[in-house]
Amino acid sequence: MGQIYLVRHGQASFGAANYDHLSTLGFEQARLLGQWFANSRQTFNRVVCGGMVRHRQTADTCFSELPRALLADTEWITDPGFAEFDHVEVLVKHCPEFADPVRFKAYVANHPEPKRAFEHTFVAGMQRWMGGELDHDYTESWSGFQERCVGALERVAASAEPGDSTIVFTSGGVISAICKHLLDLPAQKSLELNWSIANCSVTKLQHRPGKTSLNYLNNYAHLEWLGEANSVTYR
């Protein structure tokens, strides 16, 4: 039986002009994950990155902590099927005034309840996207995103040799979409799940021909064990 490890990228640069870059803490989270793998002597046959800068930065930083001997036979692949949905488009279609990320960050920061303001605005945008009635408004529909993520998972599983370990560096929305598929979750539950997936957490799948199943979800013990009090983040 083979294993597929899904890693959410380290904390990105929320509120900056370019979100697709790890924050200082995001790099540290990736290092802690690498140290965890090194301590457990974990090896991988393949490394798959979703094509975004933050995915590759997380992978490179993580694997810089592993001994070269553990990486000697590792194959690296980029598969855009594991890229995140366009969260900026989802937000801006709901609130066009937030096309400027600095303006959105200021709105959240100045709100009496910043966390609630962020979640309320983003959830409303997600529900508009997920509703399906306005698919023509988006570059990629919700259903299209789901199909893309499941297709990427199926490609990885189909191309793996028996017993292979594959690690995929991706995003929370992708992991939620895959779990929705594997567990047959309602759309609303997958949205709730997306909120709970920590940066640099690990979700493990097991697969054999014709069957992929969830082994564990959203493990971030490495951050709690090796990191500081603020090492666990969700955005």
TrEMBL record:
<dbReference type="InterPro" id="IPR013078">
    <property type="entry name" value="His_Pase_superF_clade-1"/>
</dbReference>
<dbReference type="GO" id="GO:0016787">
    <property type="term" value="F:hydrolase activity"/>
</dbReference>
<keyword id="KW-0378">Hydrolase</keyword>
<dbReference type="Pfam" id="PF00300">
    <property type="entry name" value="His_Phos_1"/>
</dbReference>
<dbReference type="InterPro" id="IPR029033">
    <property type="entry name" value="His_PPase_superfam"/>
</dbReference>
<protein>
    <submittedName>
        <fullName>Broad specificity phosphatase PhoE</fullName>
    </submittedName>
</protein>
<dbReference type="InterPro" id="IPR051021">
    <property type="entry name" value="Mito_Ser/Thr_phosphatase"/>
</dbReference>
